[in-house]
Amino acid sequence: MTNDRLAIAIPTYNRHLILKENLELMLPEIIEFGIQIYISDDSSNDHTKEMISKLIEIYPNIVYMRNEPKLGHDRNCMSTLRMPAEEYVWYLGDSQIICSGGIKRVLEVIESNTFDFIAVNSLHRCIRIPSREYKDANSFFVDLAWHTTLTGATIYRKEKLFGTTYDRYLGSNFMQLGILLQELLDSRNGICWLNENLIYGNEKKGGSYWNKQVFKVFAEDWVDFISSLPEGYSRENKISVMKSHSDNTGLFNERSYMAYRISGKLDMKAYIKYYSKLKYATSFDLFNVLMLALTPRLLVKRRFEKMYGKNIN
After folding, report:
1. CA–CA dist 4, 27 (Å, integer)
2. CA distance 301 to 255
3. Which of 18, 31, 54, 233 makes the best surface tag, with the fewest CB within 10 Å?
């Protein structure tokens, strides 16, 4: 018997071993509560399909869909969220794991309230905002939009989805957040923020898809995405949120910029190309970024090791 209140929906791309490990870790609680799992596979091979076919023999409450041709990040997000029929959908990245007790905790919230969305904390993020209910979309936007870029941090009430089009977010790399923020503007039931560590990332995943194009995704795409949000979010708040991701994650702080220079991601070509967006995406002084882009990589490497040690990750 499956649980009709909550489902887990996972978009995946060429991570069958990590996804297998994650599902096996979560399976005891998934079985305990009869949680249906939906998987939308954008992979370029059959490894995930083969893995899931074996897992279904252990736990039959899995719905698998292979996308041919592949949909890409944003369309696969929409496809994945459309799959479940259950009342709430936990949209989980294929490298993310729900902590033991996490499903039980979310079910407790669902049973006692009717929120349109639930946002949860991740194990390695230090967020000081206490658990609370947000009825005002702009307040949530300023406080936690940066955090809910994380695929796995949000549970969606299915009834609230797809009443309108989300095409404006295609190509943004932030479709899951666009859907949340657009629907939150006219939400009567609001969003519950649970400052409880209910998810964490599989350390074996390696780099995220955006690591090789960090300036493209979290400067250019991020700024363009925030700019594209409905006018219900004020311009002042949009400018604040553009910087909030870097300010909270350290993605564009001095240490990170030095690492980007050492790896070759930061040079004058990148600085010139992304300057117009970086000035909105970070609070860090861009003159210092220019100086780093002009400094030979070997000198930056020596300075980095003196300041931070040899580990640049």
Report:
1. 17
2. 11
3. 54
